[in-house]
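Q: Here's a chain of 697 amino acids. Please give me its 3D structure as tokens.
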Amino acid sequence: MTDSPAKGEDLEALKGLFLGEDLERLRRIDEESRNPEERLRRLSELLPLALKRLERRGELNESLAPTVEAVVRLLIQRDSQRFADTLYPAIGPAIRRSISETIRQLLRNLNQALEVGLSWQGLKWRLEAWRSGMPYGQVVMLHSLDYRVEQVFLIHRQTGLLLGHVQAGGVQYRDPDMVSSMLGAIGDFIHDSFSAESDGQLGQIGFGDLSILIEQGPDLLLAVAVRGDPPGQLREQMQQVLEDIQRRYANVLDGFDGDMSVFSALEGLLEPLLQQQLKNPKGDRRWHLSMKARLIGLALMLVLLMWGVDRWWWQRQQEDFLLRLREEPGLVVTSVVEEGDRLRIHGLRDPLARDPAELLRQTVLDPGNIQLDFAAFQSLQPQFVHRRLLRATEPPDSVRMRVSDGRLIVSGLADEDWIRRFRDRAALLAGAAEIDTSGLLLSQIDLSPLQAPDTVQLDFDPKTGLLVARGVAPESWLERAKQVVDDLPGVRRFDTRSLQLIPDPSRFDPPPTVELRFDQGVLRVSGEAGNDWIATLKRKLAEYPAIRSLDTSKLVNLDEQRLEAAKTELEQLNILFDSALSFNLSDQRQLDRAAELSLELVRLARSLKRPLRIVLQGHTDSTGSFEDNRLLSLDRADFVAQQLFLAGVPPTAIRIQGIQRLAAPEHSAEERRFNRRVSFTVELLSTEADGPSGRTE
């Protein structure tokens, strides 16, 4: 066995034999991972290479855009003023330069328009603008231009996509994508139709005073729409712009896949091509001399017209003032006298009208040159009649007054004292030949004459004169209230649709033995009454929603009492026969009484709507066999049933039944005679009887 240090040396030697250079490389990687400075050094070497690769692939802008946007947004939120101060050195000069160029161009256009504005050429151009519908300034610009670049198109040659487009201000153009497609189609048409060489290029397209100059690069096509005669250096500028764009976007154009977002900054490169040059007008000196002559003549004309205009203006001011006086309500101008520079005006004025001196102060006229002399009078114009009525009657805010065709119309709400005072005073005022107070309502009325019960609530709307009754009330009170309402002032309509009525007891025609009492929506009935009256009472209650329920716990139904009494009497009655072998009755009166009771039971059962069945049970004495006695009992029951039918008892109410067993031995002749009988059993069923009478065993 060897010691441990020796084992470690052997293991290291064995690793060196197997791993060799890989072992050394692993050691260096391990040292670099443990040293932060070494990791930062390696990262600084790799980061530029990664950024260059992303830029060549066109992915750098897309990768950095979200981060840069987030950083800029965060800086603006934290300190917007500091962010603006940081950008000021770059943005300030650009803004000033843009504003200066815009103002300079505006002054050039204005100067050009003024130079031709009063000339014969300017009149011709104005006529042209009127006929063509174009603005005059645009017509002047078109005639004064030497050339102007109106639009610039940058097109990808292989796909025909429009990568960039800019246009001059005020230029109307169609869809730029359509223009780019047309340019590609025209080039293909020329190559296919005229057997043009494959390396040939379409250089220019002309239409009237509009030309399209075309420059082509390896991947791009630059087209410029020019109006007028462009200089030769425009071609050179187009070539420089095209070469600059081709150089900047070379990596993107090599692998272009239709993504247009990478070309968002192209407008700044294309805008320098939007340029124009104005013509130098000829005959400036002659124009300036003629312009001076025109100005002198115009000044002389102005001097000659100033005096007349001044006189006319002051005269017009006086006429306008007189017109205002005549149109002002409550003022009447009777005469106007001119005394040199002074003007004297006579007239009439209602005390409620505006002061003529106030109207004079609202003008530019000198009050010292105008004398106003107005006498007092009362105007019959509606607004002044209305004002005098307001002063004399002092109506409340709820009253409205208006005058129409000499007729005073008063409406609204007021108390009885004011209405009486108004009628006394209004008749004395001028201007109101007729007074209409149909729309004048009492704001408060006394409803005590109605003597409403506690269960009735009365609501009065003074605006409409509507009196609404709610709650529960007897019919007799409603009839009396309708008569009283007709005499109440201010009530125009009595609404009782929300009133629930309680009928008078006489409405139900109660018998003398019945007492009716209404208590909190419940009609309590006590005493005795027949079933027909009780049914009639229930039907009539449906007409009165105020009666929510009916209490008949203390009401005795006489028909039910009669039904029970007749039932008891009939069940106690027996029809006796003289002998066991005959059907001779011993007492005809018993049979007649049974018929009367049966008819009474049928009538009462129908009235009470209770199904009824009368069972006739035949009996025999103990003489004879059971079979003979059973047939004899059925014959006796059937005989009695036939007699009941003849008396008017309906067959559906009768059932017959024979003996079920032999009678017990009789101990006497009286017991034997009692067994020769027909007895009665009255059944009050829950449903109608099942069928007609018949024999049952």
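Q: Can you summarize the key feature?
A: Residues 687-697 have pLDDT under 50 and may be disordered.
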